[in-house]
Design brief:
Elements: E1 11-14, H1 22-29, E2 34-37, E3 42-44, H2 50-57, E4 64-67, H3 70-83, E5 94-97, H4 100-109, H5 122-129, E6 137-143, H6 149-156, E7 160-170, H7 173-184, E8 192-195, H8 198-208, H9 213-218, E9 223-226, H10 229-237, E10 244-245, H11 251-262
Helix pairs in contact: 1-11, 2-3, 3-4, 5-6, 8-10
């Protein structure tokens, strides 16, 4: 079988936010998969930019800026434009980006990335900053709902951490009807569903029913593919199985894991 046909005949449901599906979708389609796109999350502005804007206006007081997603970078860039804050005003900052996609977005913004952890999860960010943050001021721009590993552990190291809400994730209203209809159609149901964050898991369960009871029935026989251990942990919290997990916590890593999992 040629590389282009490794996923031939495999229907894969992608639940990323609509504006972020292209890399995963194109990677899977290039391998012959039939891709279905129904977003489980929608990225929206926070209720207020007051806290984020205040931090940006005082950016010179910080030693480190931590960004844990491309969404956070895009929100930061938008507010910088709105407030007419030039990237040069960040010159004194050390910037930590959680992974290569976030690093690329930061660099496109015109900022230099000082640190990318070995593994693209919060715990690895913390370990990478060990010994570097005592007595330092840190700005963490992230989603409204997120794990508290980074601020909690950095405070233990003696850092002063300001957490600001840069965006929020919500359940797309239009996806509810589409997803429920898809799962009821035996001829169209996906063979694999991808999850690229804990938010995609939580919203998926919210769309399909109460804490796994309805999903366990509806999803019988479908494989779940997770981008990494944090997302896998969230799946298990909802009593949902993890059939495929990427070793490299990136979109290309998830594509490789799906190929490997489908060939078993």
């Amino acid at each position: 079988m040629s590389l282009a046909q490794q996923l031939a005949g495999v229907r894969i449901l992608i639940g990323r936010a609509r504006h972020q599906t292209s890399a995963l979708s194109s990677g899977l389609k290039a391998l012959g998969a039939e891709v279905i796109e129904i977003p489980f999350i929608e990225i929206k502005p926070p209720r207020s930019y007051k806290t984020l804007d205040a931090a940006l206006r005082q950016i010179s007081k910080y030693d480190w800026l931590i960004l844990t997603s491309v969404n956070g970078v895009e929100a930061l860039a938008a507010r910088m434009r709105r407030l007419k804050i030039a990237p040069a005003q960040f010159s004194q900052l050390q910037v930590a980006a959680i992974g290569p996609a976030t690093r690329n977005a930061v660099e496109i913004l015109g900022l230099k990335v000082a640190l990318v952890p070995e593994k693209y999860i919060a715990e690895s960010v913390v370990e990478s900053l060990r010994g570097k943050v005592e007595g330092k001021r840190i700005l963490l721009a992230r989603a409204k709902v997120a794990r508290d590993v980074i601020p909690r552990e950095l405070k233990k190291m003696g850092a002063a951490v300001d957490v600001v809400e840069a965006y929020q994730t919500v359940v797309p209203v239009a996806s509810k009807k589409k997803l429920r209809a898809l799962m009821k159609d035996r001829g169209r149901r996906p063979h694999i569903i991808t999850f690229t964050s804990s938010s995609t898991v939580r919203n998926f369960v919210a769309i399909l029913g109460e804490r796994g009871r309805q999903p366990r029935i509806v999803l019988d026989g479908i494989q779940f593919a997770s981008i990494g251990p944090v997302t896998s942990e969230t799946l298990r919290e909802f009593t949902l199985p993890v059939h495929i997990e990427a070793e490299d916590y990136t979109i290309p890593g998830l594509v490789r894991a799906i190929v490997a999992g489908s060939s078993r």
